[in-house]
Design goal:
This protein has about 260 residues and is an alpha+beta fold. It has two domains: about 5-155, S-adenosyl-l-methionine hydroxide adenosyltransferase, N-terminal (Rossmann fold); about 165-265, Beta Barrel (Elongation Factor Tu (Ef-tu), domain 3), CATH 2.40.30.90. The protein is built from five helices and 16 strands. The strands form two sheets. Strands 8, 9, 10, 11, 12, 13, 14, 15 and 16 form a nine-stranded mixed beta sheet that branches. A seven-stranded mixed beta sheet has the order 2-1-3-5-4-6-7, sandwiched between helices. Helix 1 (about 15-30) runs parallel beside helix 4.
């Protein structure tokens, strides 16, 4: 029986929010195993949340329940959903936060959660993480079948800008997905789309961001000169803009959502 729940939010750890959600889960299933992926997702950033869960979920055992609460539209028209994708379950808002999951997994079922008798009552308009998502995740670990929570839907939301726009053979327009704790800027230029960045002879290229240009690719952080901003292929499989022992986000005055243009030659 599935009993592992991961939790990803933009709540931070200063307030009571994460603790309250864990309390709800354990009240329903005291045997649940709870694991935090991150509570430092950039506030209100669905893109950051989507990237964060996408980089972690595949390393967990089959039947893990992943609860993701990055929910700036809480209480509005967006729907609560339950996603079955590959070997995993995902619970959260229908705002595109599972967009990477939809792209990567072949077998996907998305359900609109409507079974209100599983919710914590009364349901707050501002804290569905506690009152809807936590109970659903907990009941999943108690063996309740996914079909009991709602009917499948096909019009679930996706983030349209996850992949770069290929304008020509020599030019692509992308974006910064995330600025991590070190100030590294993770772009959406994936090595799957641009394998030339891992070839023995790296390409001649230019990256334009916030009025600045970068033309150097390094293999490791330490190869760069102190204070130098350069590109590197990160462990997540995306091109990153980094700085040796400093924050590229500060050096470039850039962050999540900023446009970036890649030109070859």
């Amino acid at each position: 029986m599935r009993n592992l729940i991961t939790i990803t939010t933009d709540f931070g750890v200063r307030d009571h929010f994460v603790g309250a959600m864990k309390g709800v889960i354990l009240a329903i299933n005291p045997d649940a195993n709870l694991l935090d992926i991150s509570h430092d997702v950039a506030s209100f950033s669905v893109v950051d949340g989507a990237f964060t869960i996408a980089q972690a979920y595949a390393y967990f055992p089959p039947d893990t329940v992943h609860m993701v609460v990055v929910d700036p539209g809480v209480g509005g028209e967006r729907r609560p959903i339950l996603v079955q994708a590959g070997r995993h379950f995902f619970v959260g808002p229908d705002n595109g936060v599972f967009s990477f999951i939809y792209e990567r997994e072949e077998r996907i079922t998305v359900r609109h959660i409507t079974a209100a008798h599983y919710f914590l009552q009364p349901v707050s308009r501002t804290f569905h993480g506690r009152d809807i998502f936590s109970p659903i995740a907990a009941w999943l670990t108690k063996g309740i079948e996914a079909s009991k929570f709602g009917e499948p839907i096909s019009d679930y939301q996706r983030i349209v800008s996850l992949n770069p726009t290929i304008e020509s053979e020599k030019r692509a327009r992308g974006m910064v997905l995330k600025a991590d704790k070190f100030g590294n800027l993770i772009t959406n230029f994936s090595i799957a789309l641009f394998p030339q960045f891992v070839q023995p002879q790296p390409p001649v290229f230019r990256l334009d961001i916030r009025g600045q240009q970068l033309t150097r690719l390094r293999q490791t952080f330490g190869e760069g000169a102190p204070g130098e901003v350069f590109a590197i292929v990160g462990s997540s499989g995306y091109l990153e803009l980094v700085c040796n022992n400093a924050a590229a986000s500060q050096a470039l005055n850039a962050g999540s959502g900023d446009d970036i243009v890649l030109t070859f030659g």
